[in-house]
Amino acid sequence: MVPLALFSTKVPADERHALASSLLAIKPDEKLLAPQNRFGMGFGKPTFPDDIPATTTLAQLVGPDSWYTFHLLQLDDSFLTEPVEKWPDQPAFQTSAAHILAINVINDCAERGVKLSADFTASAKSEEHYQNVLQVVEQDRNMKSNLRKRSLEPLQALTGHKFN
After folding, report:
1. Alpha carbon distance 80, 66 (integer Å)
2. Entry's PANTHER family (predicted)?
């Protein structure tokens, strides 16, 4: 998701320039059709560096999957070769920025937690009872198989690709 910083006015111009230079330095010959650095195969969780010191810049976090983000979001990268100050005038930048603004950002984990809390608040008679109910529900959810993985089985059989 590092490339999204290219479109933020809160990121200084020199940092966006360094980010663009890092991206261009590792640009693949062909569009990436799948993420490269993931745990397991396919679209799993990304691998992160073991240590990211406070002095790390966005440009240092650029990797092959940064280009996958461009492909996935259908971003036109032709503006990257221009000076940062000219980007807002570039049609490629304007179109890509519009794609970025159209992204709906959600936090599924947080939303599930809020929903879980709302569902069981009425049944709790005290804070301790409430915490116990939440732990029991969480334990029950962990014991059940992941329904999303089960729904991928027909797709895996059809494509021959294993999704993690």
Report:
1. 13
2. PEPTIDASE M17 LEUCYL AMINOPEPTIDASE N-TERMINAL DOMAIN-CONTAINING PROTEIN, SNAC DOMAIN-CONTAINING PROTEIN
Consecutive sets of 10 residues in the chain, 164 residues long: mean pLDDT of each? 88 93 84 61 61 84 80 88 94 91 74 71 75 77 59 55 52
3-state secondary structure the chain: CHHHHHHCCCCCHHHHHHHHHHHHHCCCCCCCCCCCCECCCCCCCECCCCCCCCCCCHHHHCCHHHHHHHHHCCCCCHHHHCCHHHHHHCHHHHHHHHHHHCCCCCCHHHHHHHHHHHHHHCCCCCHHHHHHHHHHHHHHHHHCCCHHHHHHHHHHHHHCCCCC
Contacts of 112 (CB under 8 A, 6+ apart): none
99 within 8 A of 79, measured Cβ to Cβ:
no
pTM of the model: 0.57
Task: Identify the burial level of 145 via C-beta atoms within 10 angstroms of its C-beta, where 0-12 means exposed, 13-18 middle and 19 or more buried.
Answer: exposed
Under a CB-based contact definition with an 8 Å cutoff, are residues 36 and 66 in contact?
Answer: no
Residue 28 is predicted with a pLDDT of 76
Cα atoms in the 13 Å half-sphere on the side-chain side of 2: 22
